[in-house]
Design goal:
The chain is built from 16 helices and no strands. The chain is an all-alpha fold and 496 residues long. It folds into two domains: 212 residues, no CATH class; 259 residues, no CATH class. The N terminus and C terminus are likely disordered.
Length: 496
Amino acid sequence: MPYSQTDSSSKPATSVQRLFRATTLIGGSSAISIILSILRTKVLAIYLGPSGIGLLSIYGTIMSTVAGFAGLGLQYSGVRQLSVSLGSEDQSTIGRTRSALQSLTLLMAVLGILFLLIFSKNISEWTFGKSESAFPIVMLSIGVGFTVFTGAQTAVLTAYQRIAEIAKMMAWGALAGTIYSIAIAITQRGGGIIFIVTGTPVISFLFIWWYYRTVPQSTSNILIRGAVTQWANLVRLGIASMFGSLFAGVTLYLVRIMLIRHGGVEENGYFQAAWALCSLPVGILLNASYSEFYPEIARLSKDGGAMSNIANEYIDLSLHMFYPIAAAMVTFSQYLIALLYSEDFLFAVDTLQWLALSILFRVSSFGLTNIIHARGKALIFTLVEFIHNAAFVLLTYTMLNNQGLKATGIAFLLSQVLYFIVALSLAKREIGFKIKKRVIISMFSVCSVLFVVIYINLMNPKFALFAGTGVTVALLFKYFRYAKRMGLFSLGKFLG
């Protein structure tokens, strides 16, 4: 549903409610997927053993890497291009965009499959030191093809803002994939590893196709010249998104190498514990936001004023949701780590506290960079992603010897502040975006208070726990007041 400007009184509530609905639905399905993933991992570990899990991981990495390059980021650029076409309400334009996406997806899936078929022996030798494992590598081509197709169909559902269907697909796909994987592991043991890896993408594709077929068909004949133009736009933005993900992966890889060299594998384990805890709630919000927020601003990419309104509402809602979460992570970090991991991981407490502060800048920057991407500024988007990832690596390298493990948390916080400042400046230049003053004041005030709690914790942990609890409760009430004002408690109105 496009953003409406007809009723100014209902404008904020309508947009915020849709985003909150998406967060609730996607968050619920993500929680189900996480629980099932834990169950799946536990059972597979029992029946496959360490070597089987290691082989499963290697096959999965090969398949996801090839699928990532073959997909060319079409899952993201497809959403943008199709959302813009939907905003025009021209069925011919919509049809041409979908035809171009489908044809390019088919081409890239075939190329991904051919790559594994041609270089299977080489990949086997590089990975295992022998060519005898080439056949399982060939089998991975099945998973690559279906992964690329799934990404494109997910892009269509996202552009049409079929949030409920995406949530159902995630939940049912995770359940079916878990049952399938466990059944193969129990009956085939180690001999079924390759079938687990290749079968899971097939299951995901079947579920996404089931909901994809409910989207109105709007294909159209497209000339070669028109197809090439559409392909060029899809590839240009897709590669920008792909590089953004690549930068993030390489950055974490470099940070982990530095940690291993500084304090061994254990230090990297502490970092991973803090990183995973902090990334989980952020990932849920960003996935939900991408499903609802991004298609909406992409449709309005030529209307800077409307984009600014929606972006401000997204940032305001995201911050209100994460204020109490960040405060709870800072205050109860020791107990969260001990509960979800063990007391052996308590060295990660300081790192988790600093990472929790970065959440506020991270979710805000997401809304700003999506403006840049929705406007089709592929090169600028890529540059912004490179800048904050490079800053994280350089700051970690600079501070690691003096600050130890918590240098990663401090470095990430500073890189996210830089990310926010750069993205805010570019959004202002691109569409004249101005963030609301009260939002900025509120964000930096909460950040300052939580910084004080972290500082107090160094001298008096008990008082810090008391003060942090008070701050968390106060921010929770702040969220409830905001939710009531925006009508978010009328769940039946927008969750149905």
